[in-house]
Amino acid sequence: MKRLINCLLLLSIIFIGARAQITGLVTINKADIRLSERDGYDIIRLAGSDDVTRQVGAPELPVVVKTYVIPLDGKPTGVDATVGSSTALDGEYMPYPAQPPLPVGNADTAFVEPCDSIYNGADRYPAKRAEIVSDRIYMGYRLVTICLYPIEYDPVTKKIYLSDLSFNLTYQAGAVEVKRPLKQGSHRATIIKKAVKSMVDNPQDVDLYSGDAPVKTMSRDIGSIKPEIVKYIPNVINEQIPDYIIITNTELMSSFQRLADWKIQKGIPAIIKDLNEIKQEYTGSDLPEKIRAYLQDCWNRWGEGLFVLLGGDVNIVPSRVYDHVFVDRTKHVSDAYYSDFESTWNDDGNNLFLENLSEAEGNRHCFIGRAPVENKNEAKVFVDKVLAYEKLSVPAASRNYIMNHLVAAAYIGYSEDSDRYSEGGQASLDGKLSSFGQIKKWCLFDHYNCDCGKHYPKTTHYNNAGKQLTRNDFLSELDGKGMSGMGYHHIVYHMDHSSPRAMGTSSLYKRESISADDVDKLTNGNFPQIVISGGCSSAEFNNDCIAEHFLNNPSGGAVAFIGNSNVGFSGEYTQYENFLRSLYNEDIMNLGVLLDKILKVKSYIPKSPFVRLHLLGDPEMPVWSDTPKTFDVNVTRWSAISNTYRFNVRINNLPEGEEALVCFKKDNECYYKMVISDNEFHTFAYSPKITGTMTITVTARNFILYEKSFKIATDLVGDFSIAEIVNFNGKAKIGARTSLNIGIKNTSVQNAPYVVATLSSSSPYITVTKPEVEYTNIGSNEVGFGKSSFEILVSEDAPEVMRNEWNAACLYLSIANTDSINNMSKIFADTVKIDLVSANMRISTVKILSTTDGDNIPEPGEIVTMGLDRFSEHGILGFPKWSVTPISSDIENVSCPSFGVYKIKVSNSYKLGAPLNLKVLLKDVSIKQDSITVDIAKAVTSINDAKVHTSSTERTISFYWDKMGSESKYNIYRSTSPNGVYEKLNKMPLTTRYYEDADVGVRTPYYYKLSALTDDNLEGDLSRAYSGITTYPLMLQKVMRENYLGFHNEAYVADFDLDGKKELVQVATGEDEGKQYSTLYVVRPDGTEPYDIDGNVTTFSGYATFQYLVEAPPSVADLFGNGEPCIIVLPRDTAHNVVCYSSLDKDGDRLPDKLWETDVNGAAFRGAVVTDLDPSDSKGEKEIVFLEENGNGVIILDAQGNIQNVIGAGKYEYNYSSLAVADLDGDGKKEIVCSSQNAVFVWRHDGTPFLREPFFTRQGTDLRSSPIVCDLDNDGNKEILIAERKAADPDCIFAIRLNGTCLPGFDGSSTAAAIPYPMVNKGEGLDHAVTVGDINGDGKLEVASLGRGYVRAWNNSGQLILNRELPDLLMHKDWNTHMKQPLIADVDGDGEMDIVFGDMFTIYAIHADGTDVLGFPMSNVGEIRHSICISDIDADGKNEIIATDLYGYLNVWKTDGHGIEWGCPRFDNARTGEYVKGGSDPIVLTANASEADVAGNNDVVVRGGELSIAADGLDMTDGQKLIIMDGGTLKVDSGRISNANVLVKRGGHLAIENGGEIEVGKFGNLATEGGASVEVVDGEVTQSGETVR
Q1: Beta strand 1342-1347 with 1350-1354: parallel, antiparallel or unpaired?
Q2: Which of 95, 221, 461, 1454 could bridge across to 1035 with cysteines, CB 3.0–4.6 Å?
Q3: What is the pLDDT of residue 487?
Q4: Helix axes 591-598, 186-199, angle to 10 degrees
């Protein structure tokens, strides 16, 4: 744009007093305008620019965006522009109306019509000529971005006017108080200056303003001494000023040490900081705030532009969770928080961060990257990739892959009005790539080289450097095997709809994408890529996102990934253009700097990208911009003269203008860097202390590193050096004496009988009070300690300074060794640098402990006892001294009975409520640390319990509270028991109304108390104790984004695709413009969906949508008995149909196949039972049985959707319960159980009454609850259990025998099982289901139920064995609160069953003895309307809890439990309501198994591996089916399958050998599909005693 738009800057900056201005001129020529057409509107652009006005509905006109550097303390006061000449374009125009920014997660592009008041108005648009759009601080420079409007539209004449604009950007110098770092490393200063110059339109002023900060520039620029170590080993590396910081936990420090060592070796001093140290040394409301405080401390000491690698996923190094909503209701994370030291991100101090984007200004002070690893193996992969990339470990002939770029861009939006797709910047991307001639490109675009009318613009100009974008082509190119013929690619840019687990590859047009699993299979090995994606959420690293899979794949993938942790916008393809320009034209090479260059300020979303776009990768890693060259380097070593070596370095082929960094490192005693920018010799001289290796490393942009090592030895007869200092941690406290017990190492071949060492220092702040120490008998190559210790005194006025700072305190040790033979002394010298630290104590709390009358309110004549507390930084305790002085005359006396405790005598004349001011002074020895004036009579607001809220995760317990009064400071205390000792958690008073406790044990209960403080830190009373406990880990959380869909029915899971894992299958309902609609969802355990029905991989699109209300949960079943699960959806109103979908896409349209739909003229509130009612019909197909809620009977459909029967019409009214279906009499055919007002009906499979009609009656009851079937008394006969549903207490539970009588204890008598019904009026309520299972492990069934305020359980005799009171349970008058049902499963891993259920926003789990399971209750995001579900959905042997709610959230928690008695509301996938020991859902095998693994009545599906039937054989039951899928094998090896019903699918294999036999059952079959294989060797198939095969 600069070439085409003349911008004349008058940069002799004008100063008027403290005011200054930058002036400039923008001239637009007609030749600069590019015109095109879209939908009858005119598209107007400036050549080379995509910046346009963004007022939605207003004319979209080009703008000019410019950024200027002004003084750091300057405040922009405005920008104005005046018009010079103005020219109209020829012709009349109708400018395209600006549309909302299109998120790459939203394909809905409903057209916004032109704004009538503008297009038909009388005024030109836009009215303004200039505005400031951004004012931010970038690495110590203040950058102001302005937007200029030189182009207008006149709606009267329909003309476009081009104007010359003279503009003035004014600012007030010195108007902003800014904090500057103390010093700055020269290497980083150079990097920052180059970046800033490339960002601004007045680069000549960057040098002028770089002197704003009073910093010192150093050429040597590491270390972190742990305060707990007891000996200090001098290390010259630890004395370097760091450029690179890795923050990680203790476990991963050793893994990242290799990366730190490499950075140090090449001349980038690096340190690793342990998170545990940060927790202890810094203050904050949570760990992210403490990490930011640490980084701000580093910035203050070492300057701008530190490269910071967060070494771990969010479970190790947390990110800032924020609440600003871009598109959906999900919380997101941002590491940009760690680089922004000006913005609070939480202006109102509550627990919600970034509620408004104005809380973050886009400031940057350090370069942030993240290594999203969770263990040592992943950390090793990350480090291996970075080292391989920087050293480019590929054959020389293949290094040209560095110039290969792959660009994949798809259509982002679609307009139904115009039937056209909108592109993702394909034309612009291709054009920009073509402008970089050194790049070899390959483009994968939707409609590549296509001139059809389906898209904008035509795409015939791509010059055959690419092809159509497809999933397979994208994966092939990533793996170096694509049709481009280029082999591997270095830079990969992607623009399409994305999600945390997938990246679109023509998502909208072809419904294709690549998944995280696809990325795991990449094998590009030593050709690592840098991937940049503009899609939504591909780098949502708080989830197991696809970006992490790129980085953590040990066999391929990427070395770095730049992507959004939240939404992306289609117009942000310009980020890639910024990347290209920065890398190839502006010589920016560090990845973290390139990330910042990508984030060019836009006029319409100036702050959003700074929060969303993240680097998963090493921020310091230099990016190759040309085919790497090999250094031509001469490195020579001159032999030692007087123990001094000289090293000469010359680079013969360093291009003019380039710089090389040369680093000399010898063990831990020498570290020196030099910068070479010519072809001359450069010399470094060094005198070694001990024999060792000198390594010389040379690096430069686009050169393969050069490395050479030399062995060097000292020529001294004896050599003495400092080995270690015991009982010293490297820190000397200011104002105190420090004893130094220095160990000296003798590296000579002779013993040293007598050594005298003398200590001195050049620091003006250090006095050596004990300078001389004698040493005796230090053996050869041993460490000796003196007869005494040295001692130093640090003066009180010394500044804090670390050993890796430019003015570090240095100690010199002169060592005199007396020769035992000649009695001659030789002098040796060594140095060590130490930290000078202050305790930095601050007064944290003033507390009234007691008053004379015990009310803690100072009154006339009373003695007030006051306690004081403090906080010390850096772990330095110091020697605190308190001083309390009265200010108010009403204080007669102050005394100190014990340390930190003072007694204050209030005068008798004191007027109650008047101030009682004291001055509190805190010193460290005699050094003042802090002082405050406190009014101890000031009333402190008490904590209102109703305003305190708590929440927990698997790793944290959080508290947040509403504002209590005028107080703005708080303390929080913790104990391990309610009445135990409470310790203060926060070191200084909290200034936010939020605290996160991350230092907690796994599911360990804690108790907390809260207090408020006045501004002068006077603390009020502690609150009551609040309990908290960490929860089970949240394995999956999804939210339905569109139109606020919510789940109104029970959670339901089934193995939808027969892969051995279970999917959530459920319907959510919503409302749009007054019309109800529903969406069917199928969600895998990893959060993905099997189909992308809206062509947008970002969205949670669902499986199918319905423009009517569906509230009955769907059912999943193998309807046809052929291994093809189907989903059956029932309507809630009579005007719509029952619909059946297949799990397969047989027609190849990438959409689920609808098999049939049937008009049943009925509505259903509860899900259908799907089972084979009559196995004797030999069809092997299942029937669909459901209750029409309005009294129109039980409707039975066959597998093809035909109505087979309607039973019981008129037998009930308005029944919202579920049916039960079971074989009650053991004849192999199933009966249907239905409840009614005061009766229970049972029909046979053909609709005839079972035994009698009604089957059971009880006058005066309301039995419209869901019945269940089981053998409760274990007599071999089944009973029907059903509970009353009336509003009066108590509601009885009946256990009905087949003869119509009830089991004792479940007969409705006054002593029988009963429980209060939820609080409703008569006639209200929907259900009152009960559950059975072996709760206490006695081998017998127990009965469990929920009631108003109670959870109860009875043994099979009706005796109450559990009566747990829960006062809030089912207390909410809502029709659906009565749908809750207790589940029986193990959730804590103790092998015993627990009772688990949800109500409102809470999930409970109770032991059989009534106590809470540790980790419960757990909080849910939204209101749970129906029952939850428990199942092992990911097949890892542990149970998950699945809950859905009215807010549209799906939450899945991983528990430690194993074993389920009753895991879902209707017991099984078929929703039969019949308890079967061990469950009745299909068994899906994916690995080798034997007959013992499939014993029971369950259908068996062999999906993979081999099912071997040996001598024990397998006895199948009527209706049971054994299906062998593609890839599975059934081997009948010497065993026998009796009553068999077997289907071998295409690709399946059946082998019968060694006398094996399959006896086909009376109602069974042995069927094989085409493509199945059958092998019979010494075996047979029989039916009715005759051999069939």
Answers
A1: antiparallel
A2: 1454
A3: 94
A4: 20
Q: How far is CA 1238 from the centre of its chain?
A: 53
User: How far apart are alpha carbons 67 and 143 in whole angstroms?
Assistant: 6
Cα four-point dihedral sign 1256, 1261, 1267, 1273: negative
Instruction: Say if residues 593 and 195 touch (Cβ distance below 8 Å).
Output: yes
Burial 1434-1461 (b: 16+ CB within 10 A, else e): beeebbbbbbbbbbbbbbbbbbebbbbb
C-alpha span between 141 and 138 (Å, rounded) = 5
pLDDT of 109 reads: 61
What per-residue confidence (pLDDT) applies to 779? 92
Contact present, 679 and 709 (Cβ < 8 Å): no
Distance CA 1144, CA 1140 (A): 12
Q: Residue 850's pLDDT is what?
A: 95
Residues in the chain with pLDDT < 50? 1-12, 17, 212-231, 459-461, 603-604, 717
Q: Are 565 and 540 in contact (CB under 8 A)?
A: yes
Per the CB < 8 A criterion, the answer to whether 474 and 497 are in contact is no
| Structure confidence by residue, pLDDT tens digits, 1462-1474 | 999 999 989 999 9
Single-letter residue type at 953: T
Cα(699)–Cα(679) distance, integer angstroms: 15
Q: Which pLDDT score, from 0 to 100, does residue 677 have?
A: 93
Q: Where are the alpha helices (DSSP H) in 1200-1333?
A: none
The predicted structure's pLDDT at residue 1096 = 82
What is the DSSP-derived secondary structure letter of residue 1486?
Answer: -
- Cα gap 1440→1435, rounded to integer Å: 10
User: Angle formed by the axes of helices 376-391 and 250-265, to 10°?
Assistant: 10
Return d(Cα 705, Cα 481) in angstroms, integer.
29
Looking at residue 1285, its pLDDT comes to 83
User: Cα angle vertex 633, ends 632, 636, to 5°?
Assistant: 150
**Backbone conformation region of residue 140, classed left if phi is above 0, alpha if psi is from -120 to 50, else beta:** left
Q: Render 1417-1436 in DSSP notation, one character per residue.
A: SEEEEEEE-S--EEE-TTSS
Residue 996: phi, psi to the nearest 5? -115, 120
Residue 904 β-bridge partners: 864, 894
Question: What confidence score (pLDDT) does residue 4 get?
Answer: 35
Residues 6+ positions from 485 with CB-CB distance below 8 Å: none
d(CA 1032, CA 1353): 25
Q: How many residues does the chain have?
A: 1589
Helix (H, G, I), strand (E, B) or coil at 831: strand
pTM confidence score: 0.88
Instruction: Please enumerate in sequence order all residues whose Cβ is within 8 A of that of 1434, keeping only pairs 6 or more positions apart, or say none.
Output: 1035, 1061, 1085, 1440
Sign of CA dihedral 1311, 1316, 1321, 1322: negative
Q: Beta strand 404-409 with 491-495: parallel, antiparallel or unpaired? A: parallel
The rounded distance, in Å, linking the Cα atoms of 1291 and 1316 is 6
* Residue 1413 DSSP symbol: P
- Give the start-end residues of each E strand in 130-218: 130-138, 141-148, 151-154, 159-172, 184-185, 217-218
C-alpha 548/C-alpha 293 separation (Å) is 27
Q: What angle do CA 1249, 1252, 1257 make, to 5 degrees?
A: 115
Distance CA 1138, CA 1134 (A): 10
For 916, list phi and psi in degrees, rounded to 5: -125, 85
For the record, the structure tokens of 515 come out as: 């998944």
Q: Output the pLDDT for position 1448.
A: 87
What does the pLDDT read at residue 360? 81
Q: What end-to-end distance do the CA atoms of the chain give, in Å?
A: 81
853-876 pLDDT, tens per residue? 999 999 999 999 999 999 887 666
Largest CA distance in the chain: 123
Contact 613, 595 (CB under 8 A): yes
User: How far is CA 189 from its chain centroid?
Assistant: 33
CB 1047 within 8 A of CB 1448: yes
